[in-house]
Amino acid sequence: MSHALNALKELAILGARPATDQRRHRRVALPLLGRFMRDNRHEYPCKLNDISVGGAAINSPIEVDAGERIVVYFDHLGGLEGHVIRLFEGGFAMQFKITSHKREKLAAQLTWLINRDVLSGSTQRQHDRLSVEDRSHSVVLDSGETLDCRVVDVSISGASLNMDVRPPVGTILTLGRLRARVMRHHEQGIGVRFIDIQEPEALRRHFSGR
Questions:
Q1: Which fold has domain 136-208?
Q2: 203, 158 in Cβ contact below 8 A?
Q3: Can you tell me whether residue 94 is helix, strand or coil?
Q4: In angstroms, how far is CA 145 from the centroid of its own chain?
Q5: Which of 2, 13, 57, 127 has its CA 20 to 30 A from that of 28?
Q6: Which residues, at least 6 apart from 19, have a Cβ–Cβ distance to it below 8 Å?
Q7: 61-96 residue pLDDT tens
Q8: How many alpha carbons lie under 13 Å from residue 54 in its C-beta half-sphere?
Q9: CATH architecture of the domain with range 2-120
Q10: CB count, 10 Å around CB of 66?
Q11: Distance between CA atoms of 203 and 136, rounded to whole angstroms?
């Protein structure tokens, strides 16, 4: 517990530190499933082993080349670009090539993810619900099918939607411009979790139409 709390404090200031200083900071273990894309545009499944704002160690079922450009995608973190700096049995380590703004955002995302696990154990922390206008929206499935819905409430990590059709749990969909995954069904519709953690003000603008 104390190790994770120390990591929280460390990540809170990492975003402001220069890239040359990042590698001296302890990485945090976050076992997230994801995928990565190589230069040939082929994608492969992977699992995050540990990560900092400067890079990550990733478990992969295939071998990659040292120095190769890689783009990885993880739930809550989105896409991260970089290159392979080290190979190890069962995976590789990569160094991120990201802007200072993206680095600060990544630090905030990592802090939230650790905070969720530290404070809630095996259950996800409930976030404050944001006030949004009661208005009709729609979701688009990966198949291209569009379904009508109404947003009941929304937080930085997900939303509750009233809708007649309930896509299966695990379905990936797009709500406006936000990618999300169906996490549960309820009496009036579904609950979804956003792929990336969202900023509160951006959410208010998104759902108010302003």
A1: Thrombin, subunit H (2.40.10)
A2: no
A3: strand
A4: 24
A5: 127
A6: 54, 103
A7: 889 999 999 999 887 788 899 999 999 989 999 999
A8: 15
A9: Beta Barrel (2.40)
A10: 11
A11: 15
